[in-house]
């Protein structure tokens, strides 16, 4: 019997080598110009959502279909049930099926599995391990694509890099400012974590501006510091919005949970209410270097960012969302293309 090769997964972008990311970006750009070749003819991609999505689901479906493949979409809320992900657990709880069985079975039907897991939300030190997506990757016999876990959002980061390259050209030496924004529905810091490492790998200087208590994951920040040294670039954290945005070429707005209050909604809401001035407006943008505004979306207008900025010439948010389509074609083509 022929030996089966282990599938290649995409769990986080920084697990790829710099030249692999560059190849993906080049192919994404060519596909956008309709100058690149890619085909998913006869391939089926399974999309499993344990929580909602607008862009990721639609852009992956469109990308697969446009390349001649097809998708099967399953939502845990309506199409199946909770899955157990703990190794060795006695399954007497709510979940009637284990990820390892679902992964093995679904691998018989599809050529790739894209997963958006749902964190338990009780403990950051537990959720940050990304046990669900890692379990899928361990037990699937087809490539697993992370559609946003607790820690990483590689598909978003790839589209973000592509968007910045389109707008700024060579990214080396350019300044990217992540600015925390006020929202009653903050996200996990996955998109910020992924782009933080990806941008530093491209030679960008990075600032992270957020109120006290909204520091990013400490291990990710240590990785970022090490990467910044390797790439002769810099990373600075500040609790001042103006300091973060000053001189930036890109202001990247995102609301993320306080990891200090993770699992405690009362404390989290109280901390958020003290930071409701963290909204990006034209005055802040004007302190950058002809700064562009990026946001992974969904964005709360006039709470996170003003209409004036979102609808003005600085805004890249629609281009950024469009690039999910092109860059995901590149990813699918790399993982599945013949
Ligand atoms: N940015 C992003 O992943 O959007 P969705 O949550 O709508 O998929």
Provide an overview of this structure:
The protein has helices at residues 18-32, 55-66, 99-106, 124-127, 131-139, 154-168, 190-201, 218-230, 241-245, 265-273, 282-286, 307-310, 317-336; strands at 44-49, 70-75, 83-84, 97-98, 112-116, 144-146, 175-180, 205-209, 235-238, 250-254, 292-295. The protein has 13 helices and 11 strands. The two termini are 22 Å apart. With 338 residues, it is of the alpha/beta class. The chain folds into 2 domains: 13-152 and 325-336, Rossmann fold, CATH 3.40.50; 154-321, Aspartate/ornithine carbamoyltransferase (Rossmann fold). Helix 3 crosses helix 5 (131-139), helix 6 (154-168) packs across helix 7 (190-201) and helix 6 packs across helix 13. It has a 5-stranded parallel sheet. A 4-stranded parallel sheet has the order 2-1-5-6, sandwiched between helices. Helices cover 39% and strands 14% of the residues. Bound molecules: phosphoric acid mono(formamide)ester.
